[in-house]
Amino acid sequence: MPEMELDRSELLREEVAYTRLDCGLEVATMRKRGFAKKYAVLATRYGSCDTKFRIAGAPGAVSTPEGVAHFLEHKLFEEENGSIDDIFADLGAYSNAFTNYTMTGYLFSCVDNFWPAFDTLLDFVMRPHFTDENVEREKGIIEQEIRMNDDSPDWQGVNGLLKALYHAHPVRDEIAGTVDSVRRITKEMLYECYRTFYHPSNMTLFVVGDVSAGDVADRASALLDGRDFAPAPQVERIRPDEPSSVRVQRVEKSMAVSEPIVCFGYKDPNASSLASPPGQPLMRRIIGMEMLMHTLAGTSSSLYNALYEEGLIDASFDWDYDCEHDYGFAMFEGRSNSPDRLVKRVTEGIASFLSAGVDPDEFERTRRRVIGSMLRSFDSLEFIAYNFLTYHFRNMRLIDSVDVARSIPPAEAQSVARELFDPDLLAVSVITPREPEGKE
Amino acid sequence: MEEVFQVERLPMAADLHTLRTTKFKTNLLAAVLQSDLSVDGATRNALLGQVLRRGTRRWPNTADFMRNLDDLYGTSVTADVAKKGERHMLMFAVGVVNDAYLGGGDEMLRKGFGILRELMVEPAAEGSGLRADYVAQEKINLRRRIESILDDKQAYAFRRCNEEMCKAERYAVSKLGRVEDIDAITPGSLAEWHARAVSEYPMDIFAIGDIEHERAVEMATEAFRGLVRRPRPAGPASTQGPEPSSEPRRIVERMPVSQGHLVMGYRTGITFASSDYPALLFANGVYGGYTHSKLFQNVRERASLAYFASSGIETTKGLMWVNAGIDFDAFDTAVGIIEAQLDDVRRGVITTTEMENTRRGLIRDIEMMRDQPSSLMDLALAGIVNGCPVTSEHLKQCISQVSVEDVMRVAREIRLDTVYFLRNEEGARDA
User: In order of start, what are the domains of chain B with their CATH numbers?
Assistant: First the structure.
């Protein structure tokens, strides 16, 4: 049996067992006793941002159109004689996949037939089958997916903000690409990106459910360690130079919405200076900011309640901070009939909050709340399945969340906030209502 | 482990449903008040939910109420409305951390029941009405919430299809009511409405998690002590709609959108209480419930017309919908393919694989409910509303016995009523 490393959280009463197979694949399992559902996710460190890269030994760099990672995700399900979904359906398993800025994940969930479904997952992701014909056929489907996103004001609001904050970093591009970029994708590009990013050493398998970690590792090893994988390519991901400033301060888009939707946020000045995911410090930054932003603008804060009572926000108001090693932003969003007044009030609120300093009692109250919601989220296998790998790829450990939340002093969160909430790094994205021309 | 609710009538004329499981880190406590779906009632209930979650007699100030919840490890609180068939439900829920994760005892659980009572029964009041500033603010917020359905084109298309299809039935009433009925509501009239709802609506309480039944009975009885209720039975959960005409209604609406949203509304004539309900679940699964289903396979995989194309059923009113996001020009082609698929189900053009994969999919979905307290509660509510309690185990049994003939029989009962299409402003005016 491959050697296991255990990570345990006493407060959560959860344990994750890690191992690395000979082929390079990392395997992690979180056993959830008593749960009916079992999830397995096989993911690679390859997302929509990886549009330019250089492989050691190859001449020159490779540039691909936007949307290749997502397109590849769609096409990997295709087999010589049909879709891999059919095999999962035969097993009574539900299969799906997702692509985000930095990763692509393939997953199934099931109650019965876990092992045959497990074998299927590990097999199909490792065996691409792209043809000119099946690549062309997918373009119509993806075009509809892009158009669906085009009609989603929330999505457009966030994407507008990223386009305002970033000059060149590919996080400003749509994950699925554009109708135009997708039309330029070819079978050859898919194979090239597959060879570059789908080597087991670039991937992680995660299982959550009532399954033994030893069995998972043994089975994965039996399936993959005998295979003849090419040596792992040395890949250098090339990112354009991103100025530290924001590109524009305000963007606007008109759509068929009932009232304006505003999304505004600060570009994280620290993010681009980090060469690789720093793990623990990044985790402290993310969780510290979550606690700070809740204290500042959460439902129990004076700011939130003042804005709500004045009618500047409603229950749709939300905020978030997310950070990768090379991009990051803190964001507020919601419906508001006076977007610019809302932005002004929140920025003033931030300024006075920072100058007064974080109230230690309020911070302790937030801490209890954050710990409680972390406990709650571990009741959801979906949450765990989707978030474990995001954390893992940033060298962070999801089950350490509670311990990190317990240990962050208010001063630490405050100093991150002082650096982050820089008025010069603020941009605003507004979706404004466009009246429909009428019914017939 | 068997997931079956234990039910007991409490002194204040409410049924307590408990389900004990130790696998969760949080416990769910909920109270549901049922009423007939009506135009006035829906708007008032929706507003009431929004106002009640602003604060309680003990915590009249919203920020203080929220801070108290933060102190209790982020205890979650909801007060909202839902509809099942022609029943309207005011639902209150409190999620507390399982005491076992906080050193034992039952403090959180006890406090959770207390919050549930305060939230539902003891609002922040002012004179003889509910707090006037909250009522005024929430009236505006309810209007905004009703109007904002426009922002989600799929939900909007879905609602418009239902409004058209059920024009003459109570089912057409949205769970949030109507904008035009908001103005007339006053803090006083809402307080009266609240008193009546709490006293007269049939009430069910749920406790799911690490809670022994006897303990829950004791705590719920204690929490709601003094509450005097005289429940009046609610009306039928569903009334018979008009027979669809042979030519389905066709509604086209235009808006500046990038994608066309097609929603087709059908009448199944089969509800949760019907012995054919498992066969209907099955027919929906073969037709459009899964990625192996006919709709996904033919509309998306073969014709590349859509990113999503699926069907779903309403369990209490007996309705079914198909929805797909398509190109504006693909309307006729898509409707043609969609109808042809249902015809195939009716005629029994169904492979063994389609049957068995649907059976496995349905059984998996039922078993997965065990991991989701809200799904378990929803199944119990479907049983309560339809007057026929069904356990997930029983439903699984029934699913295992459905035959192709059963599927064909129920599919033949399904009639297309209304075709709704949301499209762009340009292009042909006739489709």
Answer: 6-223 (3.30.830.10), 249-423 (3.30.830.10)
